[in-house]
Amino acid sequence: MCETDDEGGQGPRENPVPADEQAQFSALLEDSAEDLYEHAPCGYLSTLLDGRIAKVNTTLLDWLGYERGDLVGRRHFSDLLTVGGRLYHETHFAPLLRMQGEISGIALEFTTADGSRLPVLVTSTVKTGRDGQPLLIRTTVLDARDRRAYETELLRARKEADLERDRLQRLATTLQKTLLPPTLANVPGLDVSAYYHIASVDEVGGDFYDLFPLAAGTWGMFLGDVCGKGAAAAAVTSLARYTLRAAAVYNPDPAAVLTNLNTVLTHEYNGTDPRFCTVIFGLLTPDHDRGGFHVTLASGGHPPALLMRADGTADYLPTPGGQLIGVLTDAHIATNAIRLAPGDTLLLHTDGLTEAHINATVGGEERYGDDALLDFGRALAPTTASATTEAIRDLLDTFGTGVDDDTAVLAIHVPRRTSGEQL
Question: What is the pTM of this model?
């Protein structure tokens, strides 16, 4: 059913407002301004210029637990604040309000009638007369208890996250140390030095190295790089390190050692989760006739070793065709044999060094590269093992954040004989 317009005959008027809704709406419009002030969802406070409370609404009184007579004409705005709040009011809040005429969103704490604290957000405005002179201060107070609880929970969660991150970093550091030898074997007639540069303290890297005794008069050494980072890479690193040691005891031939490791990795990790690494393994045997050491190197896809000679020259020791360890069941292992003479230094390194960005701080993508490392070795030769690792440490520091992968280096040096030594 519809109603018709009594005037003008303009036809029916559909969907009229029900009478009960009209009554409720009219009642809302008839709320007095005083009632709206007293029961507003926020606190209202008016003070004289000296801070004495002249007016306060019921909402704020209920929050604080005071009667109106306890505050109006008796207390000052600063009396409602905590000790710290009073100090802030005197040194910052009040001076800024006088200068600016308004100050908003200030976090303070009120002291309630029972002595508890009420966190609030305060906005104050200076009311002026027609002549522009200040008359009083009007203040709006918002209850910040929920916000404070939210902020407290955020701080707690952040603190827990920071503690968890610190714990994970300590765990990663500890795990990384277990994957590296605490000390290198003391080889008579050799000076050895190693350095490990961690690119990120949050994750365990996959670089590893070792130098250890084998049968009488021989030593084994290796340096490798597992693909990836984290716990999965650490598991492969641990497996590779101990497999290399065990295989070298069984058969110290470098090619046989890497073939053994390749067999273990391809059997252990296959299908949808293959794991692989690059490794260079060396067998050291003293040259009792001429001094120095015979070195046989085998490489499974690893960057070539750098030989820095006693005469000041330097060159890579090529191991072409060596394939990644853990990918193919019949991976080709490349070998090379040299004599490390007195004064010579041999450097093994992972590709974190040559793949570092040399100008990362200005957004560049240029890598350090193999040629630059060769020039570095030629400038450094002749050198010692400790001087080599120290120089590389300094070099990596110059790259800053450009080093985005862990770097391991192992240097071995045959010291020159003194005049009193015999062959």
Answer: 0.62
